[in-house]
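Dear colleagues,

I hope this message finds you well. In preparation for our joint manuscript, I am sending the AraC-like DNA-binding protein (Paenibacillus amylolyticus) sequence together with its predicted structure, so that both groups work from identical material. I would be grateful if you could confirm receipt.
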Amino acid sequence: MTREVRTVVYDTDLQLEAYQFEGIMQKFPNHFHDYYVIGFIEQGKRYLACNNKEYMLNSGDVIIFNPQDPHACEGIDGRTLDYRCINIQPEVMRKYVQEITGQDYLPRFTEPVLYQSELCTSLHELHLMILEGQSDFHKEEALLMLLDQLIRDHAVALPPVASQDLTTEIRRVCEYMETHYMDPIMLDQFVEMTGLSKYHLLRLFTTQKGISPYRYLETIRISHAKKLLEQGALPIEVATRTGFSDQSHFTNFFKKLIGLTPRQYKRIFNHEASASAAKDSI
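The corresponding structure tokens are as follows:
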């Protein structure tokens, strides 16, 4: 049986998360994050769907997701995956962009996959420094140099096209879910507020957002759940406060999207001065 290792560190100096998954075979359903993800395939082969485009990933490929980019991935031919990434919140990314460019904006990375990129080596070195808890400025220097090249060569300072193209009906549905994610929501409510049939609504939403309405709602709930866990809330409390029917449903969906259970994720945020980590073998 394949041994899985899932390691997550929150670096308090850089204010970001670093993930390392080894030997995993998990399939990740279509979802999005409210933060930037910059990662690379250390070993393995994967199928990726992102923003309605398909990609084949191999060792040495760099992956970049903007906030709200819908994406899903799964293994190929039963191969396991070794993967590393860093997750950067928008407010932290904005701070780094201002430091690098002197301008106040959020970047929009134009391609989710950089095939066989030389940046893979730089990202690997930075990731190791974070996991090892290095405390001198070499770590921050490496991050700034990496972001500088990514912003210069692979980003624009423009909003995503998908946000500009949303119809009034779909924008209204999104805003409702973002506000009422804690409540039970029925499809009939969207029909009443938009005047669209259920089928037309589902097709239109999925086309414009790249993700189904239900998956959009669950992803919003997980995003809020992460913040509550980071603040120290118990998983059973978080499940209730984020609209999940029960703790089991919450735990299963959290692991499908994040790759960790809520309890494992909560353990990395112990509010100590040094970086904290959670490591589990399966």
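For the figure legend, we might mention the following. Confidence is low (pLDDT under 50) at residues 271-276. The first helix runs from residue 90 to 101.

With kind regards,
E.M.
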